[in-house]
Amino acid sequence: MAAPPASRYGPPVLPAAPTRPREIGLVRGLLMATMALCLVGAGASIYSLTREVTAPGVIVTAATVYFAVQSAAAPAPLARGSRWAWVWTFASTLMGMASGIPVIATGLDWFAMRPYVLAIGLVWTVLYAWLLGALSTRPVRAWVFA
Question: Which UniProt keywords apply (predicted)?
Answer without folding.
Answer: Membrane, Transmembrane, Transmembrane helix
